[in-house]
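ok so I'm stuck.
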Amino acid sequence: MKADKKNVKMGDTVSATLLLNNVDKLKNAEWTLNNIVQSFEILDVKPSDALAEYGPAAVNVETTGNTSKVKLTMEEPVSGNIPAINLTLKVKDTAFTVSAIVNPTVAYTNELGNRISLSSAGMEWMIQPTFSEVFGTLKAEAIAYNAVGRIAFFLK
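replied:
not stuck anymore, here's the structure
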């Protein structure tokens, strides 16, 4: 996986490319992107221009829970090292985080029907939050009732 930038702000759009290295007569490939949905929204998925040189390609995305699967189907077999899929991602701004790690796994099926797993390098993005979040327990030192029936908490 390769991205155009590593330092992003919440709400930013990021371009990333899923790569194929050392493939031999690939017909189908499937990337599993665990936990990508926690930090990113997938806006667009399409075959790269380099992949178009090998013929028509179909790409689809299935998301279940926190996992997205990106599937590639080629009409003609592909061999070599190829930037395969271009992703457009939007950094979510709904949950506080300072980094996002995506470690994809990839397997492909060759023209003989053999399924082959490939090594894959992940990406870590450093995220600049647009808001702060505080956790902790707030305990009252004493509680007092006034004459109007209001409750006051005295904090230490």
